[in-house]
Amino acid sequence: MARVEAGAASSIVAPSIMVVAGEASGDLHGAALCRGLRRLAPEVRIVGMGGSRMAAEGAELIADVTRRAVVGGTEAVGRLPALWRAFRALRARLLAERPAALVLIDFPEFNLKLAGVARRAGVPVVYFIPPQLWAWRGGRIRTMRERVSLVLAVLPFEPAIYRRAGVPVEFVGHPLLDALGDAPSRAGARARLGLDAGDLVVGILPGSRTEEVARMTPLMREAASAIAARHPRARFLLGLAPTVEAASVERLLAGGPALRVVSGATHALIRAADLLLATSGTVTLEAALLGTPMVVCYRVSLLTQLMGHALLRVPWIGLANLVLGRGVVPELFLRRDATGARLAGEALRLLETPGALEAQRRAFDELAGALGEPGVGARAARLVLAAAGVVA
Questions:
Q1: I need a surface site. Which of 27, 61, 122, 168 has the fewest CB within 10 A?
Q2: Neighbours of 8 (CB within 10 A)
Q3: What span, in angstroms and rounded, lies between the C-alpha atoms of 271 and 187?
Q4: Which pLDDT band holds residue 154 (cuts at 50, 70, 90)?
């Protein structure tokens, strides 16, 4: 596919594809897609919004808001100016360049608005990691039908939802299957982190967004203190996301048990741990696929909780429980439940009840098959190129 640039007769310009992600997990999945696009169609230029991983895979970033991502309605208010600037920059580039396709990755409040701009401009819209309509805000399906040319579903129950609504959909599998391909073995992870085979290791994963880390780390520190009181030889490791500053986390850990902050080795930490205290998000599905038991928690403002409770359509929040269709992993989300004491209680129950950790591991064995096969980035890239009219 070629394009003639206005005002420059016979000037050939390589086609472009705009990829837009607004959070750290979206940047990870966007990087896999960008890698697939470059391998299949190296002449295609990739532009858009993402983070360091997408940039490393050759994307030209017009904006990066991944370091300031938040969850929740009231928590997002402070981000609005930065998001509006990013939206205007992307809209201007989209209208000026008319990319061969716009690829959206999660981040629905922002991305569905951009999808409207693209559709009016005649640009095909592909949604990779679509909104969680099955969980809440089901009315968005009408917007998806109006604005999205193709949904690339990543969870096994999503295709039926979109087909019933008349939205074109293909199941590509979950991109974590690709991202975890080089994860170390348990023995290799412990060796890398300097842990003995017999150590009791508790991993702490407070999230990738600054606000959630500030909210969740004190709860997890309190839970770690309670666990340490019962298991004084336990080793505690905190996985630091690349979007979070180490100094801010270390301040939040003051007064807790001895705890080591690990940067750039999240998969090794997950593999090495006997149990994880994990903030809800993509990392919980990573942990399940790597076979590590966990307790999942999250805490939002009271207003956001009330809003979410009114709109929520599923009995669980954690991805592992949703895919498995049953409550395998303890979840603490209501403000009365998401406390350090409750988190410690669930963790100690799993550690001290014979067979409890192994029961989670057995359930996790079911996940990989349900989520598809590796090669997700390449499959998604091939479908994106087809939607864009680019022959790979």
A1: 122
A2: 9
A3: 8
A4: very high
